[in-house]
Design brief:
Pfam families: ADH_N (PF08240), ADH_zinc_N_2 (PF13602). With about 375 residues, the protein is of the alpha/beta class. It has helices at about 70-80, 85, 150-155, 160-170, 190-200, 215-220, 230-235, 250-260, 275-280, 280-305, 315-330, 345-355, and strands at about 5, 15-20, 25, 30-35, 45-50, 60-70, 90-95, 95-105, 115-120, 135-140, 140-145, 180-185, 205-210, 225, 240-245, 260-270, 305-310, 335-340, 360-365. The strands form 4 sheets. Strands 6, 8, 9, 10, 11, 18 and 19 form a 7-stranded mixed beta sheet that branches. A 6-stranded parallel beta sheet has the order 14-13-12-15-16-17, with helices on both faces. Strands 1-3-2 form a 3-stranded antiparallel beta sheet, with no helix packed on it.
């Protein structure tokens, strides 16, 4: 049975909590969660009511989830992406983003208290994800929820925005006045990058579908190019200090690297580490991926004078708090197109697989 010591003496009432004078302990030993017992189509997902809740480590926080968003990583993992890592660890709980309330905290947690509304995201290789009534995240993976947004709206933000933050702030280190090109600005990561860059005083150009142009221009981009009807290379003028390629095809890589100033940064979300590990197994795949990345870095440094990086989301407490401030100021949001109850998780995944819903989908937990 999982037993957690809680810090607050007057938390918001949460099902499964037992209160005693002077201290509060949680006796949440199991809860609902969506399990992935094997890889496959949406029908492999199983909503179970008795999934164990592990004991908290000192730096961990138990979050009563209210909303969790579906990311492309979720549907790819369900289909078998990363199987070299995750196959031995099945069954998994999918999900990275979460918004909810703190239900319990580990012994060393100081910045968050029971009952506080929070949002955050797990790292990409987490095994116990957020498609559950009670999610567990480390303290540095959470921040107070932006007060101006709902749980549904908040849950759409962290994973995508932190991925963009890592690219722009940690890797390219963009500064005011620089030019940024986002290839694929209509998706959650691309749209987050546009807003973060605009808030940093950068000049942003992006490619996107026609349906995203108005939203992107309203967010402050200088130019939005409809890749379905315009020739990108002839329409986009000048060079850029950084390129974030959310598509990651050979053609977009060619375009992006050719549009960079010397000393600029090309960053792609489509790194090959997981794919190569799936193909060859971890013992061979990871060294091969390292060699591929090193070769590309040397090649582009020599031929174009640019930096080349694969971008993955990582926990960044400072970045998440800045993302919260931008959201509260109305400078960063990710539109949610549709919500589903957690009981309809299969239908939600199917809608993403069939591209019935192109925008962000959020799962709600009552």
């Amino acid at each position: 049975m999982a037993v957690f010591k809680l810090q607050s003496l007057k938390p918001r009432p949460i099902s499964g909590l037992s209160m005693k004078a002077g201290s509060i302990r949680s006796y949440v030993s199991s809860c609902r969660a969506v399990l992935l017992p094997r890889f496959g189509r949406p029908e492999v997902l199983e909503l179970r009511t008795d999934v164990p809740v592990p004991d908290l480590k000192p730096n961990e926080v138990l979050v009563r989830a209210r909303a969790v968003s579906i990311n492309p990583l979720d549907t790819r993992m369900r289909s078998g992406y990363g199987r070299s890592i995750f196959q031995p660890l099945l069954p998994l709980i999918l999900g990275r983003d979460v918004s909810g309330e703190v239900a319990a905290v580990g012994a060393s947690v100081r910045s968050l208290t029971v009952g506080q509304e929070v949002f955050g995201a797990l790292h990409p290789t987490a095994v116990r994800g957020t498609y559950t009534d009670y999610a567990i995240l480390s303290e540095d993976e959470l921040s107070p929820k932006p007060a101006s947004v709902t749980h549904v709206e908040a849950s759409a933000i962290p994973f995508a925005a932190l991925t963009a933050w890592r690219a722009l702030k940690s890797t390219a280190r963009i500064t005011e006045g620089q030019r940024l090109l986002v290839i694929g600005g209509g998706g959650a990561v691309g749209f987050s990058a546009i807003q973060i860059a605009v808030a940093s005083g950068c000049l942003v150009t992006t490619t996107c579908g026609n349906q995203s142009i108005d939203r992107i221009m309203a967010a402050g981009a200088e130019q939005a190019v409809d890749y379905t009807s315009e020739d990108i290379e002839s329409v986009i003028k000048g060079k850029f200090d950084a390129v974030l390629d959310t598509i990651g095809l050979p053609e977009t890589e060619r375009i992006g690297t050719n549009l960079l100033n010397r000393g600029g940064h090309y960053m792609t979300l489509q790194g090959e580490a997981a794919a190569l590990s799936d193909r060859y197994g971890l013992p061979i795949g990871l060294p091969v991926a390292t060699a591929v990345l090193f070769k590309k870095r040397i090649q582009y440094k020599s031929s174009h004078g640019i930096e080349y990086s694969w971008i993955y989301m990582r926990a960044d407490s400072e970045g998440l708090h800045e993302i919260r401030r931008l959201s509260e100021a109305g400078k960063l949001n990710i539109p949610v197109e549709k919500t589903f109850p957690i009981t309809q998780v299969r239908e939600a995944h199917e809608a993403k697989d069939k591209k019935v819903i192109l925008g962000k989908i959020v799962l709600e937990l009552d």
